[in-house]
Write a structure and sequence with these properties.
The chain is 15% helix and 29% strand. It is of the alpha+beta class. Strands 2-1-7-8-13 form a five-stranded antiparallel sheet, with no helix packed on it. The chain binds four DNA strands through residues 1-5, 36-39, 61, 63-66, 73-80, 86-92, 106-109, 111, 115, 118, 120, 163, 166, 177-179, 224-228.
DNA sequence: CCAGACGTTGTT
DNA sequence: GTCTGG
DNA sequence: CCAGACGTTGTT
DNA sequence: GTCTGG
């Protein structure tokens, strides 16, 4: 699954804009070591003018038909790729409201017998990963496949929110969890953001696990367990954040 | 027809 | 909005 | 996803 | 154990 991730773009958004064909305002490049449900996250979607634009959505989908009391919860942070086309809550969104959730990598926890033994691992693109093909290994960013919706409170501003699509794990992730976020290969991004595209079979065909070898992993500090810690700048020292440990390699 | 639900995850 | 159950 | 809270009464 | 908040 994907319940926590990182967004660590380079400070200069120029290549990011090129990588995701972003028009209009540049994407937010504030580094986020520890993105949690309900946080504002950087996304890319196709607007009415058919231009790919960067935006900030709330992570945790609030469907447009939600009641106010339900909308105060964290919402749907994940959606299963295998059943998107059938589930009433997601079917319409698969056809009409697809987006990219920009990310650098995601966390999974290895569970022990106590809370102290929840050990986090960080999964991110390997060198020469197909996920960064086309010369974009340097931006530090890839695209999770996402869906979004718009919710109007009885009084107040519209809330745009999103969910991250999950699929079965590849060989690297499988030892830790039985789900992983869909990370779109560069050649799938155009299809995913094409508003003319409404073929569920074609759309779901790109929602595959990352290729074997596309990711690398390392153990990181348990500081990431708490959403209050958002990286080296807040509480965890960089060397601790990056501390090594178990080799989960294939 | 209307009413009511609509999700994922891990753990046992 | 759209589907399921009654 | 993990962390942290989880409650009522009467009295000060 | 289970829910809420982040």
């Amino acid at each position: 699954m994907c319940g926590r991730y990182a967004y660590l773009p380079t400070a200069d958004p120029t290549e990011l804009i090129e990588q995701f064909s972003i028009h209009g305002d540049p994407p937010d490049v504030t580094p986020r070591y520890n993105v949690a449900p309900t946080d504002p996250v950087t996304v890319v979607h196709t607007n009415r003018e058919l231009q790919q634009t960067a935006a900030v959505f709330r992570w945790g989908l609030i469907p447009s038909w939600s009641k106010p009391e339900a909308a105060r919860r964290s919402g749907h942070i994940n959606a299963r790729a295998e059943t998107l086309a059938e589930k009433p809550a997601f079917r319409r969104l698969l056809l009409k409201r697809r987006c990219l959730v920009l990310a650098s990598g995601f966390y999974e926890w290895q569970h022990g017998s106590s809370r102290r033994e929840r050990m986090p691992y960080y999964f991110s693109p390997a060198a020469d990963s197909p996920l960064t093909a086309g010369g974009y290994a340097g931006t530090g960013v890839v695209a999770f496949a996402g869906l979004y919706d718009r919710w109007y409170p009885p009084d107040g501003d519209r809330i745009d929110s999103c969910t991250i699509i999950t699929t079965s794990p590849n060989g690297l992730v499988a030892p830790l969890h039985d789900r992983m976020p869909v990370m779109l290969a560069p050649d799938a991004i155009e299809l995913w953001l094409d508003r003319e595209m409404a073929d569920p079979m074609l759309l779901t065909s790109v929602l595959a696990p990352a290729a074997e070898g596309a990711l690398t992993t390392r153990r990181v500090s348990q500081a990431v367990n708490s959403v209050a810690n958002d990286g080296p700048g807040s509480q965890a020292p960089a060397e601790e954040w990056n501390q090594g440990g178990l080799d989960l390699g294939p």
